[in-house]
Amino acid sequence: MATTVPSPRNEIQIEQTECFIGGQWVPAASGKTFATIDPATEQEIAQVAEGDAEDIDRAARAARQAFDSGPWSRMDAADRGRLMYRLADRLEAEIDALAALETLDNGKPLKDSRHIDIPLVIDVLRYYAGYADKIQGSTIPMRGDFLCYTRREPVGVAGQIIPWNFPMLMASWKWGPALAAGCTIVMKPAEQTPLTCLRMAKLAQEVGFPDGVINVVPGFGPTAGAAVVKHPLIDKVAFTGEHTTAQTITRDSAETLKRLTFELGGKSPNVVLADADLDAAVRGAYVGLYLNQGQCCCAGSRLFVEASIHDAFVEKLQTLTEKRRVGDPFAAETEQGPQVDQAQFDKVMSYIEKGRQEGARCVTGGERVGGRGYFVQPTIFDAVTDEMAIARDEIFGPVLSVLKFEDPEEMIRRANDTCYGLAAAVWTRDISKAHHFAAKVRAGTIWVNCYDAFDAAAPFGGFKMSGYGRELGEEGLKAYTESKTVTVALS
C-alpha cells in the first residue's frame, strides 16, 4: 500500500518498497524491513524490504532463466535498444516526480536532481540504446584455408552494487552497457537510497522489459551484497564504492572467478598554475569540491595553488564559499543539502576536527548547520601539508584542503603521492603545461580548465586503488561482453 510523506515534502508517493524479482514485487524472504531516512529532517520515509542471500538467490535464478532461455536471450539487438529508448523516454516524462523522490531519499538539492542527475541518466540510457545493435566482432586473416571471425557476446548475469551519492545515475551507468550487451541484471542499491532504483525497475517493467531481465534487491552489504558476489549463477560483478569493500569483493569472488569492474574512491588533485584565469579556476575549485555536498568520488579535494597567487586565490574562494546557501533541498535557493546519513555526517565532522588538531587553518566553515538534519558548513582548510589526514584520506564531504606549491614538477610528484588515481585537473593558459600535466599525472580522467565535465560517451574510471575497468563510452561495454573466436575449415 502506498504511503505518503507529509507536507512540506511535496506529498511524494512512495510506491515501491519491496524486492523486484522475476517481474514480481515481493517482500524479503525473511520478512525483514529497514527504514530509509530523509537526511534533511532525520525522519523515516518508508520501510523497505531487507533482502539477503535467499532473495539474491531468487533474483539470480530469475536473471539466469531470462538470460539462458527467456525472451531476452532471443530478442534482436535492435529490439533491446528500442526498449532502452522507451525507458529513457519514460524517465523523461516522469522527471519531476523522479527528481523529487531522489532528493527526498538522498538529500541533494532538487534543482540538481532535476537538471543535472536525471538528464544524464536519460543521456546514458539513450547512448547505450544506440549501441545495442552495433556490438560487432571482426574477421581475422589466419594462415591456411580457414574462415576465422570473432563474436562479442554478453557475459551473462551481471551483479551490480551501487552507492548512495548518485542513486539513479549510478544505476544507469550499470544498466546501460549491461542491457545493450544483452546481459541480465541483479542489482543491490545502497541501503541509504533504494527508492529511485526501485521506481526505475517499475518503469522498466511498464515499458516492456521481460520478467527477470532487471532484478532489484534492497539490503545491506554484508548480507545481500556479499550474496551477489558469491552466487555461482552470477557471472560478473560491477561495484562502485570504497576500495576496502572492493578488496573484500575480490577475495570473496575468487572461488567463482567472476569478472570484476570497480569504480572506487579518490583524493583528486585540482591544480591552479599562476598563469590561470583566476576567476574561472576559483569557480572550478568551488564546483569541483562542493558538488553533491562533496559526496563525489572524483571531488577535487586537494587544491594545489601556486605560491604567487595563493593568497588572492584563497580570498576569492572564501568569499564565494561563504555565499553558499545550505538548507532544505526542496527550497529553490538551496545550493547544498545535507550529507546522506548520520554516519557520513559524523565522518565529515571527525575529519574537520582532525584538520584542526593537525594544525591546518580553518579559513571558513567547519561547523554543523542547524539542529536537525545532517547539514555541514562548506569548509576550507589552508596551510595543509601532504601528510595530514585531511590531505590523504577520502572525506566524502564539503571539506577542501588547500596546499601551496612553487615548483610545478614537484607539484606533479605530490599530486601523484596518493593511493588513488581517479581524476585530476589543471588550470593554465599554457597548452604545453596542460598536456605535460595530463601525461604525467596518473589518473583516469584529466580535466583542463574545467572540472566535473561528464558525457555518456567519455569513459570514466581509475588508476591504482581507484579501481579497474571503465564505465561509460564504448569502453564501458567491454566489461559486459566476452570475445569468442570461431574458426571454420573451408576444405
Describe how the helices and strands are arranged.
Blueprint: E1 3-4, E2 13-14, E3 19-21, E4 24-26, E5 33-38, E6 43-49, H1 53-68, H2 71-74, H3 77-93, H4 95-106, H5 110-131, E7 139-140, E8 146-154, E9 157-161, H6 167-181, E10 184-188, H7 195-207, E11 214-216, H8 221-230, E12 236-240, H9 243-252, E13 259-263, E14 269-272, H10 278-290, E15 302-306, H11 310-321, H12 342-357, E16 361-364, E17 379-382, H13 389-392, E18 399-405, H14 408-416, E19 423-427, H15 431-440, E20 445-448, E21 467-468, H16 475-478, E22 481-489
Parallel strand pairs: 9-10, 9-12, 10-11, 12-13, 14-15, 14-19, 15-18, 17-18, 19-20
Antiparallel strand pairs: 1-2, 3-4, 5-6, 7-8, 8-22, 13-21, 16-17
Helix pairs in contact: 1-8, 3-5, 3-6, 3-7, 4-5, 5-6, 10-11
Provide a concise account of the structure shown.
The protein has 491 residues and is an alpha/beta fold. 38% of the residues lie in helices and 21% in strands.
Task: Describe the structure in your own words.
By secondary structure, the protein is of the alpha/beta class. Helices cover 38% and strands 21% of the residues. It has a seven-stranded mixed β-sheet, sandwiched between helices. The longest helix has 22 residues, at 110-131. Mean pLDDT is 97; it is low at 1-7.
Major beta sheet summary:
7 strands, mixed
Number of beta strands: 22
Low-pLDDT residue spans:
1-7
Oligomer: single chain
Helix content bin: 25-40%
Mean pLDDT: 97
Query: Which class of secondary structure composition applies to the elements?
Result: alpha/beta
Number of helices: 16
* Mass-distribution shape: globular
Termini separation (Å)?
67 Å
Strand order, biggest sheet? Answer: 16-17-18-15-14-19-20
Radius of gyration: 23 Å
Strand residue content: 15-25%
